[in-house]
Design a protein that fits this description.
This protein is an alpha/beta fold. 38% of the residues lie in helices and 12% in strands. Strands 2-1-12-8-11-6-3-4-5 form a nine-stranded mixed β-sheet. The chain has a two-stranded antiparallel ribbon with strand order 7-13. A two-stranded antiparallel ribbon has the order 9-10. Strand 1 and strand 2 form a beta hairpin. The longest helix has 30 residues. It is elongated.
């Protein structure tokens, strides 16, 4: 600016003309300054220029590729992982799949909402007036924006899952505890969207293979990733409108916003997030796979190798997908109720004298049925061991069964 004034003063202008030129020079310089500040801000928010994608391996296994972030801060342990679960569903599934999820793994979330178009008397609902598989991108955009506004101050991570997904929450939180949520991070199951596939270049901008986190397996965004998405998704970094492949579009958007992706495999190379059921994970590479037309698409999008048999899945697996209501309930039982007995465990056995059914009573199904209903140890033992049922024993049994019926 100083040099411009000197130049104007050297020229032989009248005082009025010189003052006018000085004013124009000041306006021009101010405009350049504003443009510079605006460019710096936009560039800093990583909205226009795409940042190189960094893949971050699990804690203690190092960084795989890309520019290294500050490792010490990146893997700073969090003593408590606060997690919001966004579960996508629709009104027709409230009483079925959504109810199964709500009664099982969802109760282990720190906060949970079901993203749907309808209110519900039981389910905690985030009502979003966008429906249909073809509009999943719009549904996810709205739910993630609201997640930041309504829960951003209270959570470290946001999980998006579907109503046919099962999440093993303890394994997810243990995995996330190794990372710093103040960094922009995105975790899930890595797939490859190839350029010849319409979803991978339908916006006319991308013409290359793209890494994305598949939606069905569930994915997790850190607090900083959610913040960047909330402020940046309406920019040219992300696709406008509701239509689009939700998982591909979100991954593309987050990549443009400078979010790093996490390789969620364990140190043995075994996957933790699965787009399919446990049965399919165990048998995916088996001889019957050629007949599984419903799963063949995954080989087109495959980035990481599918392992077979017991090596298919990490012992700290986090998610399975494409589950029925019955499978969700079965997963809950197998993981949290069923267990091999080990030394020191409480015995659930009934006393031996109550467990043995005398041979003489096997042909008397009426008496046996009554005995099986009695939980009073003394009364049940007396009935099983009696050659005949006298008036006193019959009266006690009748009184006991009447009380049970009244209570129930």
């Amino acid at each position: 600016m100083k040099h411009i004034f000197k130049m104007i003063n050297k020229w032989k202008f009248g005082k009025k003309t010189r003052n006018i030129l000085i004013v124009y020079a000041m306006i021009f310089a101010s405009g350049l300054y504003i443009l510079f500040i605006d460019y710096a801000f936009v560039n800093n928010q990583i909205i226009i220029f795409e940042k190189n994608l960094n893949f971050i391996n699990a804690p203690n296994y190092g960084l795989v590729t890309g520019k290294k972030p500050p490792v010490v801060d990146l893997i700073k342990k969090q003593s408590k992982v606060r997690l919001l679960c966004l579960i996508l569903t629709e009104g027709i599934h409230h009483k079925t799949k959504a109810a199964s999820v709500f009664s099982t793994w969802a109760k282990r979330c720190d906060n949970v909402v079901f993203v749907t178009e309808e209110d519900d008397e039981v389910l905690p609902v985030m009502k979003v007036n966008v429906t249909g598989r073809e509009n999943l991108w719009g549904k996810v955009k709205i739910s993630l924006e609201r997640a930041y506004r309504e829960y951003g101050a209270h959570v470290d991570w946001v999980l998006k899952a579907d109503h046919d997904t099962f999440i093993i929450m303890e394994n997810l939180k243990e995995f996330l505890r190794g990372f710093n949520s103040s960094h922009a991070l995105f975790a899930g199951s890595l797939y490859l969207c190839r350029s010849e596939i319409p979803d991978c270049n339908e916006n006319g901008i991308e013409d290359k293979n793209e890494i994305f986190m598949t939606g069905g397996a569930g994915y997790v965004l850190s607090k900083e990733a959610i913040r960047r998405f909330a402020f940046g998704n309406s920019s040219m970094a992300c696709r406008s409108g509701d239509a689009g492949a939700e998982d591909v579009e979100l991954s593309r958007c987050l990549r443009h916003l400078g979010v790093d992706f996490i390789d969620t495999r364990d140190k043995y190379g075994r996957n933790r997030f699965f787009h399919f059921s446990p049965e399919d994970a165990l048998t995916l590479m088996g001889p019957r796979m050629e007949q599984r037309y419903d799963l063949n698409w995954m080989f087109l999008y495959q980035l990481l190798p599918y392992l077979s048999g017991n090596d298919c899945c990490s012992s700290n697996t986090i998610s399975f997908h494409h589950l029925t209501e019955e499978q969700i309930l079965m997963m809950e039982f197998l993981l949290y109720r069923l267990r091999p007995h080990t030394s020191g465990d409480e015995s659930v056995n009934v006393p031996v004298e109550q467990a043995i059914i005398p041979n003489r009573i096997l042909d008397d199904s009426d008496t046996l049925e009554i005995a099986m209903k009695i939980k009073n140890e003394t009364l049940r033992t007396a009935l099983l061991n009696s050659e005949t049922i006298d008036v006193k024993l019959a009266s006690e049994i009748n009184h006991y069964l009447t009380n049970i019926k009244n209570i129930s």
